[in-house]
Specification:
The protein has five helices and seven strands, in the order αααββααβββββ. The protein is of the alpha+beta class. The two termini are 53 Å apart.
Amino acid sequence: MITSIILALHFLGVVPAESAYLSLYIVGLVLLIAEIGVVSFGMLFVNGLLALYAGYSLHMGQPMFFNIPMGWGVIFSVAFIEFITIAAAVIIWKKVQNIKTETGAEGMIGQKVQIVNWDGIKGKVKYEGEIWQAESKAEMDFNKDDEVSIESVGKMKLIVKA
């Protein structure tokens, strides 16, 4: 995206060629170095190579992009591809963020358990074949084999609710 912006500023006459190719070299190197520390699935690497290639083309005085004369069509094409790639990455990231945890203590919350025995606020419950110590925040009257939900999990003890 930054490559397209620098090229657009150059072709608009806002940035001279020397500043444009120097900026493209710097941006390209920064993006290549950033790929080492940031998980971007190669997006930063590809954008870094594009920036270096575009900077080299401007520096050599041949504004060609893969043997195509560099102009607005090339800039918009590169910017569009970069935008689609970034948009797809953001959409995938949002979907992955919304996946519910299925393992560990976080995966237990909301699950149904059966009462094995209960006395006031403490008792034992059965969760996936295992017997767990359990508590409730208020005094409850549960009978054997009643189903309750896990509200939270703490140090080998389940907090349950009706």
